[in-house]
Structure formats: C-alpha cells, structure tokens
Specification:
Elements: E1 3-6, E2 11-14, E3 27-29, E4 51-59, E5 68-73, E6 76-77, E7 79-84, E8 87-93, E9 99-102, E10 110-118, E11 137-138, E12 142-147, E13 151-152, E14 162-169, E15 172-179, E16 181-182, E17 189-195, E18 201-207, E19 211-216, E20 222-223, E21 227-228, E22 231-239, E23 242-251, E24 256-259, E25 263-266, E26 269-270, E27 273-278, H1 291-304, E28 308-311, H2 318-327, E29 330-334, H3 346-360, E30 366-373, H4 383-399, E31 404-410, E32 426-429, H5 442-452, E33 458-462, H6 482-496, E34 504-507, E35 513-514, E36 526-527, H7 541-550, E37 556-558, E38 565-566, E39 570-577, E40 581-586, E41 589-595, E42 600-606, E43 610-617, E44 620-628, H8 663-666, H9 670-695, H10 706-709, H11 711-717, H12 722-728, H13 738-748
Parallel strand pairs: 27-28, 27-34, 28-29, 29-30, 30-31, 31-32, 32-33, 38-44
Antiparallel strand pairs: 1-12, 2-3, 2-4, 4-10, 5-9, 5-12, 6-11, 7-8, 7-10, 13-16, 14-15, 15-19, 17-18, 17-22, 20-21, 22-23, 24-25, 25-26, 35-36, 37-39, 39-42, 40-41, 40-43, 43-44
Helix pairs in contact: 1-2, 3-4, 6-7
C-alpha cells in the first residue's frame, strides 16, 4: 500500500554551487526554503539568480518496504536536476508545479539525493520578465512516495493518476472516474467508491476497466461560498482481496456558464465573481510558505467577502487549491506565460499548461484556465505569439472539456486584435487612475468593449493602485497615500460592480508582494498595490471598502486611523460599513447620522486640538484620533528611499515645466512635444542597448513597441510625471543617472506652461 514520507528536514544547502560533488560551504536548512527570501524584496533588481545545490542523505533500511520509490518535488524554481548517488535521474523546467523522479533503480543502502535548482535568466523557461521576484529554491514540500510496482500513475506531468468528471443529469450527477494505472496485471481490478461529506457511502462499483461512471442521486451541489459541498472519490487497485494501491480525492458537483450579458452563472443562478488576485510570497519568507500561511491568506480573503481569486501568475500550492474548494472560492488558474513572448519558450508553455491541468483537474473551484498575462507588451501582431496562444487554447479544450479558457490582456492591447478573440472569455488589466488616464475612464472602456464584442464575455483581471503609510487630505493620482488608494477603489467599485455583464473582477492585489526591480513609493523591492501589507499585519482602508460591498458580516470601519496630524480647520472623515446608517461622534458629541447606498459615508469634522472620532453603526463602532497641527507632519510625506532624485529636489520654476510634471500636460504645447520626442529617442536608445546587452547574456532585453501599442500606450504614459516614469523603468532594467535627469529637467525648464496649466 502507498506510503508518503515527508523529507523536508535536514538538507545541506550550497549557494551558488553547480557541482554535485561539492562538500564545502554547506548551510543546514529545512524545507520549504528560498535563497531569495531577503535579497528578493529589498530593491535594486540584484537578487541572486543562479544555481544552488541541495543535498540529503537517505537510508533505505529506514524506509517503508516498497517496490518503487518516487521523489516528489512540489516546487523548485525554476529549473531542477535530480541526482541519486551521482546519477542524474531527471530534469524539470517550470518553477511552480509538482514533478517526480523514480529513485528505485539507482537506490543503494546508503543514498545521497542531490538537487540542483537554477533560477538564472534564460530564453526558454517562463517567466523571464515580470513585475514580481522569481524566488529560487526548493520552496514547497519534498516527499518520498513508496508504492507497489502496480500503482496509480506517478509519471505523467506530476499528475494524480485519477481524473474525476461530474456531469449533470437532471437532479442527479453522473461521475466519470478515469484512472491511469502503471503496470496493471491481468486479473487486477479497480474498486470505485464515492463518499459524502460525512464519509458515508453514496455509490460504488468494481471493475477490471480503468474507467467507471457512478451516479449520485439528488446530488448536493458545490455552490460557491454559499454551500461548498464536497464529495470524495476513493479508488483502489485490487489484486484478489488485497488493495495494493489506494488514493482519495475530493470533488464537487456543479455547473457553470459565463454569459456575455449576465456574467458568471453557477448552478443556474447568477453568482457575481468579485474578488482579488493573489501572489504567494511573504515578507522575509519569499515563496517558502507553510500551511498556516496559506490558511491565514484564505481567512483574510474570506473576511473581505470575495467570491473569486485569480491565482497569479503561476500554479499555486496544491494546499491552497484545496482550501479554495473547501471555502467555495471560484478560481482562475494560469501559467506564467507573461510579459515577454519568447520564440524559444513554446514547448515550456505547453508543458506548464499540461502540468497545471493534469495536477489540478479535480478541483471544483477552478472554472477557467489562463493562457497568458500581458504577453503583448511588445505588440499583439506577432504571428508566433498568436500561434502559441491558439495551440494552448486547443490543448486546453482537448484536455478539459468542462472548463473555459481566458487570458489577461495588457491595457494598451487593441480591442479588435486577433489575439483578444482566441480564448472563450477575456479580461483586461487596466490602471486608469493610477498609471495613466483617470478613474472615470474604467467603466466607459468596458462599455465600449462590450458593445464591440457583444458575444465575448469581458472581465477585469487587474486594477489597483499603490499605498504605503503616506497620508494627505488632498489625495492625488500617483501620491502613494492610503487616502488616494481608498478613493481610487471607491470609484472603481462603483463603476465595476454595477455592470453585471463584467464576468469577473480581480483587484490587483490582495497583498503587497516582492518585486525586487521596483523603486517607488518609498519602500523599494515591493509592489504596494495590496489591500494588505506584505507581512499581513495591516489592512489598508481600501480593504474595508470591499468588505462593505461584499461581506455579510456586519461591521463599521473608520478610515484614516494612521493619519492623525492634520492642518486643515475642517477635515473630511470617511467611514465604510455594510450597515445602512452611520453616526459619527467627536469627543462624544454627535455630528449626525448619514445613510449611503454605496456604503461610503463622508463627514466634515471640525479639527480643533485633539479629538476622538467614533463611528457607530448599529451595535458596532470604530474609533480613532485626529489632532490639529500648524504644519504638515513630514512623516506623512513620501520620500523615495534610495532615489536618485526626489520630487522636492527638482528645480521647478514657476510657470515652467519640470520633470515633476505629467507627460500629458507637457504634450499640450508644441515645445513640450518637441521635448518629448527628444526624450523618447533617448529612451529608445537605452532600450535598444538593453536589448543588445540581453543578447550577450545579460538581464534585460525588454523594449516597448510604441508604434504597435499605439494610442493606448500614450494614454497610459500621459498620467505619469517624467520623474515617476523614469523611476519605474528600473523594472525593465532601464535607468537614468542623476546627471541625465537634471539635464532633462533643465531643458524642460525652458518650456513655458500654457495659461490653463499655470497656477
């Protein structure tokens, strides 16, 4: 009978070592482990990317007796070679999926497992360019699977050896169970059994066939968060009366469709998908998460009231999919085919998609498989890119006839691009109101797309803006304050949640996450668009805006509790609640009650001395403090950490442009447009050099095809200040020196602002 032995303890780790015979410089580690847990989150885009060695001793006499022994590696980023006693057993490309190596034939009494893991840049294994850190390491469990010669398959794309396909038949469900058996002998039989949630038998049969269909009468449906009911399928290989291998997997009975006008429909009922995206890393841990971390993550998402999660941008831990099945969260699962199409990476997209589907087919939570994310950064007309997507789309439909395909399009991708029409449903990543444009552009954009493609369901795969512990009473786009993030999400909620045709919305992101190339917002090395901080210690105000719309748990939240010192005589105070009425008290005195259909309550509060502010909704209350000051608290004002230049260091003569001004404003006058042409030529030169360097084996190689991207790209760029744009270019390995920035600024200072822009 199958036995699973966890091997996480007592590994020798050798950083930067690619020789499996190495015996010096070892560090004792336990798995899960990442060598980029610190340097992958501190900024500079200089985290270690290379090959490291893991070693472990294995004594055969201490193992359960078995015919075959498989080493199961649940995550090694991004490529790995497995050796036993010096013999190479397998190579695997893809840092987010399970793979196995058969140790049996190379096993001795005393054994040494050696695993070389490599996260160095290359041109064939995805991802290679993206806005997150590619943490290296054995960052998930490593197990030993001990089995009989005859066993449920362990060799096909890291799969489970069992595929469970429930199909509705009136009020009943016919459940087809396909098994894949290695070395099945004549006379062996398969026992099939379905158990209910309490462990009671629902249906069973026994057959020599490796496939069977069992009926569940009056099936109890898996109905999202409302009722995430799970059955269990248990299958065993019988040799005579003895079970020589047995496995159990949970599944759910449900139907769904995605309607272009009415959105997501679960079991015949409209079930709006409103939720978040999730990256799997943590502060000081990287990707090396424990079960308790996954449980905490799912708990916060449940508190928010979300009904869906986009698991970006890669295959997540199997345990997290299990939790989503249990909690009823509808999932978008995808492969890391992201940002930069690589002609040499096609086979890797295919193998990663096969692994994703084979390993996760049985999860009822998953409804769509994601083909790619923002892959048209260099344009949507590349024939090889289009062919790659068509191959993936056909592959998914061949492997799984029960689910749909989707993808996340970059904002500037044209609505009428051939590529957009490849999957069954589509979503866009839009940041109007943060990276460019304004918040009020979001809803109308989707209306336009819906009118252009009335039969193609459209969703929102990413939207968000960054916030750190900066504060202001006059929030502005790009200021990184908690107040602007709250305002942004208020506006987006009202626009997106009221358009029922939008099949799913996914906030970017539930949690701040590691992006070592980032240098913005005052804390380098992270993307701060999360509704919570990377350490999961603080829920930003915007978290509660979503809770007010999505959660049935009564609450009231007073915004701005970290913003105490305020200079204005009358200050705006915002309250979020899912209750119909809120009363605000200042030092115990009521300022009155307000009602708000949109769950957002605004009060004007006299700011004198120090005041205790209390928001009350029914039996719930929340409290904070404000204090009148004469001068803005400097601790609330953004200062970029390690920046070459901060905005307040830039010379900005009155009535003249500077690199603190937005590109869109600069382009409103002829001399400004001439300046921008010169700037664009300089930028192109840097990107061309970057691309040339990449051909010589260096990191980089990304360039933006402005001509192909067209007006959408310019619309995005128009919302950036020149300084902010140049700081963000560090994410694609393009940098400007202090001297270059000052020279750009000096030229801009010669350009007069049009009268309507002067203050």
């Amino acid at each position: 009978m199958r036995k699973l032995i966890n091997l996480n303890a007592d590994w020798d780790f050798y950083k930067g070592v690619s020789d499996i015979q190495s015996a010096e410089g070892a560090e004792k580690v336990s798995l899960p482990h990442s060598w980029n847990a610190t340097d992958g989150q501190d900024g500079g885009n200089d985290y270690f990317r290379g090959t490291c060695l893991y070693k472990k001793q294995l004594v055969k006499a201490e193992l359960p007796e078995a015919d075959r022994y498989y080493l199961e590696i649940k995550g090694a980023n991004s490529s790995a070679d497995v050796y036993l006693n010096g013999k190479k057993l397998c190579h695997h490309d893809g840092g987010y999926s399970t793979f196995r190596a058969d140790l049996t034939d190379a096993m001795a009494e005393e054994n040494e497992i050696a695993i070389l893991v490599d996260n160095a840049p290359n041109d064939s294994v995805y991802p290679q360019m993206a806005d997150f850190t590619f943490y290296g390491g054995l960052y998930r469990d490593v197990n030993l699977v001990c089995v009989n010669n005859t066993h449920f398959d362990l060799d096909y794309f890291g799969g489970r050896g069992v595929m469970i396909t429930p199909e509705k038949a009136g009020d009943d469900f016919n459940v087809k169970i396909d098994t894949f058996v290695t070395a099945k002998a004549e006379g062996d039989e398969i026992a099939y059994e379905i158990l209910d949630a309490e462990g009671g038998a629902v249906a069973s049969t026994k057959s020599a066939d490796t496939s069977a269909t069992l009926a569940i009468e009056n099936a109890h449906l898996w109905h999202g968060r409302k009722d995430p009911y799970l059955y269990t399928a248990k299958v065993s290989i019988l040799r005579g009366e003895e079970a020589i291998d047995s496995v159990s997997y949970r599944f759910g009975c449900r139907t769904f469709e995605i309607d272009p006008d009415n959105g997501f429909i679960l079991n015949g009922e409209e079930y709006p998908l409103r939720g978040v995206s999730r990256h799997q890393d943590r502060l000081g841990i990287g990707n090396a998460l424990l079960p308790c971390h996954h449980e905490e993550d799912i708990g916060f998402i449940m508190e928010l009231g979300a009904t869906t999660i986009r698991l970006a941008h890669y295959q997540h831990d199997e345990y997290f999919y299990d939790l989503c099945d249990e909690k009823g969260l509808v999932l978008w699962a995808e492969i890391p085919y992201i940002s930069k199409h690589m002609p040499g990476g096609r086979e890797n997209t295919i193998s990663q998609m096969k692994e994703l589907i084979v390993q996760n087919y049985n999860h009822p939570a998953i409804v769509v498989w994601g083909l790619s994310n923002e892959i048209t950064m260099n344009g949507a007309d590349d024939p090889d890119l289009i062919e790659n997507h068509k191959i993936l789309n056909d592959l998914v439909h061949e492997m799984d006839k029960t689910r749909l395909t989707t993808m996340a399009c970059v904002s500037m991708c044209p609505m009428d691009a051939e590529y957009v029409k490849i999957p069954d449903v589509v979503s866009y990543n839009h940041y109007f109101g943060w990276y460019g444009g304004s918040t009020d552009m979001n809803g109308p954009w989707f209306d336009k797309f819906h009118a252009m493609h009335p039969t193609l369901p459209i969703g929102v795969s990413e939207y968000g803006c960054e916030a750190l512990n900066w504060h202001t009473s006059t929030p502005n786009q790009g200021d990184y304050t908690e107040e602007y993030q709250a305002y942004y999400h208020e506006e987006l909620i009202k626009q997106l949640f009221t358009r029922k045709y939008i099949w799913a919305t996914h906030v970017w992101n539930m949690y701040d996450f590691g992006a070592d190339a980032r240098a913005e917002g005052g804390e380098n090395g992270q993307n701060h668009k999360g509704l919570m901080t990377m350490d999961r210690k603080y829920k930003k105000d915007a978290f509660y805006a979503y809770k007010a719309w999505l959660s049935d748990e009564p609450f009231v939240h007073l915004c701005g509790k970290r913003y105490i010192d305020r200079v204005e005589d009358v200050t705006k105070v915002t309250v979020y609640s899912n209750l119909p009425e809120v009363e605000l008290f200042v030092n115990g005195e009521s300022l009155g009650k307000k009602q708000a259909a949109d769950h957002f309550f605004y009060f004007d509060v006299p700011n004198v001395g120090e005041s205790t502010i209390t928001a009350v909704a029914g039996e719930y209350k929340d409290e904070g403090t404000i204090r009148k000051v004469d001068k803005m608290n400097e601790d609330y004002i953004l200062k970029e950490k390690g920046a070459i230049l901060n905005w307040f260091d830039v010379e900005a003569p009155e009535g003249r442009f500077s690199i603190n001004d937005k590109i869109g404003d600069i382009m409103t006058c002829a001399r400004g447009r001439l300046w921008f042409i010169g700037f664009a030529l300089k930028l192109k030169k840097k990107m061309d050099q970057n691309k040339k360097n990449a051909g010589e084996g260096e990191k980089g190689g990304f360039s933006v095809d402005l001509k192909s991207a067209g007006g959408g790209m310019m619309q995005m760029l128009s919302g950036f200040s020149v300084l902010r744009m140049t700081s963000m270019l560090g994410m694609v390995n393009v940098s400007f020196t202090k001297e270059e920035l000052l020279k750009l600024n000096k030229k801009l200072n010669r350009v007069r602002k049009p009268k309507d822009l002067k203050k």
